[in-house]
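Section 5: illustrative case.
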């Protein structure tokens, strides 16, 4: 079973929400949620 991981980008200035999928290579490079969070910061 393959799970498609997604991330939500929320812009409070103009009240917009964008949902994007996290690519497999990025998930393999940064194991776990904390690693991906640090990459995105």
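Designed sequence:
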């Amino acid at each position: 079973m393959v799970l498609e991981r997604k991330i939500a980008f929320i812009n409070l200035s103009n009240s917009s929400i964008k949902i994007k999928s996290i690519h497999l290579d990025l998930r393999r490079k940064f194991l776990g949620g904390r690693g991906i969070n640090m990459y995105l910061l």
